[in-house]
Each structure stands twice: as structure tokens, then as C-alpha cells.
Amino acid sequence: SIPLSFFAGIGGASKAGVLVKGSNYLENLSKTKILVFDKTGTLTKGVFEVNGIHHSEMENAKLIEYAALAESASSHPISKSLQKAYGKEIDRSRVSDIREISGNGVIAKVDGVEVAAGNDKLMDHLGIRYIPCHSVGTIIHMAIDGKYAGHIVISDIEKPHSREAIRALRAAGVQKSVMLTGDAKKVADKVAADLGIDQVYSELLPADKVEKVEELLKTKPEKSRLAFVGDGINDAPVLRRADIGIAMGAMGSDAAIEAADIVLMDDDPLKISKAIRISRKCLRIVY
Ligand code: ADP
Ligand code: MG
């Protein structure tokens, strides 16, 4: 039988906006020593603004239009942001043959012409020569009809509590914080330095994130636990692989929420240390 105080713990956590799917997760949480974070949508807002457009072969507004149309079927934060930058209703009849390549970008036909929008890896994959971008930001290279058409630089902002969340976790006994991201190294390094994250791995594909978590699981202190926090569809396998999977509940994908053991109802990373404290308190009552 489940000790009564576990119910109190789960109830207390839920009052704090942390949904715990079972009492065993509460116990695991109390032993967390390594906290692994996804970046976009977890530590940052996942709401990108356009910072600049470079080497465009057409009017900037036209390039944004192609990007927004090609991205129209994607639920990635990048796609949502490009559609907001376009600002007009998407005419879906202009778009066909959509392919989303996770961790790379999208390819679709717009007005019957092939449009690719994504990172260096996507361009390499298509064999398209691109002009490297030196700005700190997430780079969306565009290729239209197999020819390079310029790039859009977008950037995201850190969540207001992220820095405090990392500090609070250390105070709650978490020994190491790690950030995993598919985004560019320059962006990742800057966010990690700003937030005081101990280790950062960038330009990862979704499968690389699972591999990194497996490596990190081998380094954890005896009897301790590793937790992963993420928000995206791509994060579901990592959420399952970690000892504890924590998902963002408000802006997170259904797949992430489903795969997680714990859900943060308001997407606030500061709630993780709060949940750890609640779990410790409730375990002290049990044992
Ligand atoms: P994160 O680890 O930050 O959650 P993802 O794995 O979702 O990132 O994506 C990694 C990178 O792949 C992005 O930074 C971007 O360069 C590229 N990418 C992914 N999806 C898209 C998309 N829909 N449009 C353009 N680029 C994308
Ligand atoms: Mg993400």
C-alpha cells in the first residue's frame, strides 16, 4: 500500500503547479543529483523574433513569406515564430509535399517550387552551398528551387526564472546541470553561460540527446537519480530514458506530456527545485 504522506506529497506538489504521475516519481525526485535540460521552450521561451535577414536573393518580406508557407504544417517553435513574422493568413492551397526533418528543418513545395528552410545540416544534406552566418542566433537557411536564397537569423529569450532555477537546484542538492540542444553552438554556449549551467552539448539530433542521457546516466553517483526536462515532440524518447522525465505542461507538446513522469503546469523551471523540496519533506515523514 502507498503511505498516506505520498498522497499529501502529490497533493502538495499539485498545489504548487507540479503534476506528479505516481508516488515512485516523488521518491526518485528526492534523489536527483543530475538535472538535464532541453534548451528551446524549456530554459528559453521558445518564441523567436527575427533579428536579421542576410544575402537574400529577393525582398526580405518575400523570403519570410516562403519560409512561413514552407513551415506551415510544423508545430516547432521556429515555425510558429516565422508564421508570426509573416503576419498574414497562410494560404494552404499554395503548399504541398511537406517534409519535416527533425533537428534539421523543413522541405515543402510552395507555388509548385521546392523550398527548404533549416540549418547547416539541412543544406549539407541537400548538397546546397550556403553562406555561413556569423551572427549569434538560430540560422534559418533558405533554398528555393535548389538554389541558395539567403538566411533569416532569429533569436529566443531566456525565461525570467531560468537562472534562479539553476541556482535553486544547486541549493537543493543537485550536483550537476546539463543542457542539450539541437541549436547552434554559439547560441547554446551563450545561454549556458548566462544561466550558470555546468555542461552544454549543442547541434545534437534527437537521437544524440538519448545517447547523451545514456552517457550521463553512467556518471551519476550511486543511488542517485537523473532527471530530464523537455517540451518538444522530439523529447519524448529522452523523457522516457531518464530516471525521471519532466515535461512543460502549458506550451509543451502532447507527446512530451504523455511520456513524462512529472508535468510542470506553468512551464516554470523554478518549480523543479520546489518539487524536490516537497518530495524530500514527504519522504522524511514516510521513513
Ligand atoms: P532544440 O534542441 O533546441 O529543442 P530541435 O532539435 O527541435 O531543437 O531543432 C534543432 C535545430 O534544427 C534548430 O535549432 C533549427 O536549426 C533546426 N530546425 C528544427 N526544426 C526546424 C524547423 N521547423 N524549421 C527550421 N529549422 C528547424
Ligand atoms: Mg525543444
UniProtKB/TrEMBL annotation:
Organism domain of life: Bacteria
Keyword Cell membrane: yes
Keywords from the named record: ATP-binding, Cadmium, Cell membrane, Membrane, Metal-binding, Nucleotide-binding, Transmembrane, Transmembrane helix
Predominant cellular place of this UniProt entry's protein: membrane
Keyword rRNA processing tagged: no
Compartments reported by the entry: Cell membrane; Membrane
Protein family per UniProt: Belongs to the cation transport ATPase (P-type) (TC 3.A.3) family. Type IB subfamily.
Stated name of the protein: Cd(2+)-exporting ATPase
The organism of origin for this protein: Faecalicatena fissicatena
Residue range from the parent sequence: 329 to 615 of 666
